[in-house]
Structures are given as C-alpha cells and as structure tokens.
Amino acid sequence: MERVPNVTRADAVAALRNPLSFIAARWTPEPRTVQRSALSALVMSVVIVVTGGAVRLTGSGLGCPTWPKCTANSLAPTGEMNFHSAIEFGNRMLTYVLCAAIGWAIVAARSEKPYRRSLTHLGWAQFWLVMGNAVLGGIVVLVGLNPYTVAAHFLLASALIAVAVVMWQRTREGDGAPRPLVGKPVQQMVWFLVLATVLLIAVGTVVTGAGPHAGDSSEVERIPIDWETVAKLHAVLAWIVVTLTFALWFVLKAVDAPKDPLARTRELFLVLLAQGVIGYVQYFTHLPEILVGLHMLGSGLIWIWVLRVLLALRERPEAVADLPGPSAEVTVGTRA
Questions:
Q1: What average pLDDT does the structure give for the chain?
Q2: Which residues contact 44 (CB under 8 A, 6 or more apart)?
C-alpha cells in the first residue's frame, strides 16, 4: 500500500486558504465519479421537491412555526411537539443532504483534469439556488404559508433541477463548441415545447395554491380563484405539451435524426402519459394526498426529460486544447 504523505504546516495553511485547490492538487477523479456526483445532486434536487410536497400534503407546513429555528426557543422539535413538527423538521434537515451532494459535485468538478471551469460554475449555481430557496422557505413559514410564496418556492426548486440537469449532461460531454444534430425548425419546435412546459408547471402551482391542500390544518390563505377552472387550463397545457412531443417524435423520424434525440423524445412521451393518467385520476377522485404527491414527482420528471430532449439536439466534442487550471500547482493531464 502506498504511504500517505505527511501533511505539513504549509499544507494545512493552503487547505484553509483554498480547500478546493488543495484537494484538486492531490486528487484526480475518474470521469465516471464526476458524472455520478452530478447525478447525485440531480436526484437530491428531486427528492427535496417530493419531501416538500409531503410536508404540504400531511398538513405539516407549520409544524415548525418559525424559522430558522423550529420554535422560538429550540432549533429542533421539542418533546411537546407532534408528528407534523417531525415531518417539517425532517424536510429542513434534508437540505443539508442536498448541500452535501452539491458539495461533492463541486469538489469532483473542480478536481477533474483538465480543469473545466463551466462545470464548477454550474455546481456553485446549484449551491446558491439552494441557499436562496432555503431563505424563501423560511419566508414561507414566517408569512403563514402564503400561496404566492409557496408557488415561488416550488418554481425556484424547478430552476435548481434545471441547472442540475445541465451539469449532469455537461459531465458526459466535452468542452468543444456545440454542434447541432438537427435543423433550425426542429430546434425551434423544441423551444416551444420547453416554453409550454414552463407554463404548465407555473399554472400547476396556481392549481395547488387555489386547491384544497393548504399545507396546514389551520386556516391558510388561498389564491382567490376557482381551482377547478385553473385545473382545466392546466389540463389544456398538458395536452399541448403531449401534442408537441408526439409531433416532435414524428418530425425526428422524418428527418432521420440521430438516436439520442429520438430516444429522449420517446421517453418524455411515456413520462407524460403516466403523468396524465395520475392527473386525471387525482382530479376525479378529489385529490387524494398520495396521488398529488406522485403528480409532484411526475412534474419534476417531465421537466427533467424536456430538458434532456433539448440538450440531446446537439453534441459537444472534446476541446482541441486542454484548459489549464487556475492554480499552477494543479498538474494538467489528458481527460479520459
């Protein structure tokens, strides 16, 4: 076994001043490790959305009635508090797990050789989105689950998922200039699909904000609009997304597109069908909590696959020249 070198005082000082450079100078992860770290951040960004939905659907939104502490005098739930407090506090603690996953992705991206600045930036973008959403989540509690802040909380989580998807994709391709795999009309069609999906998700937050699941057993403000009317608009947008996806698949077949765009579009269509079944069943069964939770998971998966379709329309080869790292101490090698 190779002997572990002693850590000198200078090493300790360097580690304190710039821990990422210190680690990067002494560790080169395999490309597969970098990809897995980015995927773990993406998975956790979906998990935190689902557990946030569980908080709402169990009426635990005010289980911890203040923020950043759980109560005025305690960071964690006290013995006098109940099941709802444990649910809400558990969701808050999962934020640290999410930060750990994003931190691993940042460290792995920073340590990859050759250094890829864009990957590190995407990792840090996720971190700051989490921090911003944590503060917004605190505001949600402090204003008593105001539906508009709850909707913003979900939309910011969707932005986090988007950045995580892009980082995961970028770990599996090079830094060369992107080369389109399809023509301009197909690209524009996919951008219409992305826009329709954004509208679908946004209207979905209005349905939730006006619907019966307020997030707590107490009297909570709702968006003053008939939720069934908005739900029908939501369904129309869903059919537009399904139609665009179906049409895109036929267009890609007609132009003999590469297999990746076709495969991602086919997968998106299947996810949309499953989500549609859940959506209609939950509507006609008066929104049972378990189906609403599955619908929230489906919303995240649809968003992921729409972005995967978009990113599959181009390829990025390896860069012609290696990019040097920001630290002279990092040894630049060739990427596997």
A1: 88
A2: 94, 97, 98, 101, 102
